[in-house]
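FORM 7B: Structural annotation worksheet

SECTION A. Query
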Amino acid sequence: MWERLYELGRRLFTLTDEMEQTREDIKGIRQELRDLTTAVTQLRSDLNNVKDREANERDKLILQLQNTLLRFERHIEQRILPPGKD
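SECTION B. Predicted structure
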């Protein structure tokens, strides 16, 4: 009987320790999850910024190409067509 009571007490003490350890583990996991969520949010923001910068850079390159083509066309027209009369 005493042996059984001792075993129940030991199990209760072990369960209490394990439950406390589990609570501490859960607190750590929650903090890690918050940190991970913050990191993912920052990465998403950074990715959006990169996308915007790349889109702006592409637009800028397209405008530069169009400008170059227009200047080239004007140069060709001036060389091929005779000057207009006033």
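SECTION C. Observations
The two ends are 124 Å apart (CA to CA). Residues 1-77 form one domain.

SECTION D. Sign-off
Analyst initials: ____
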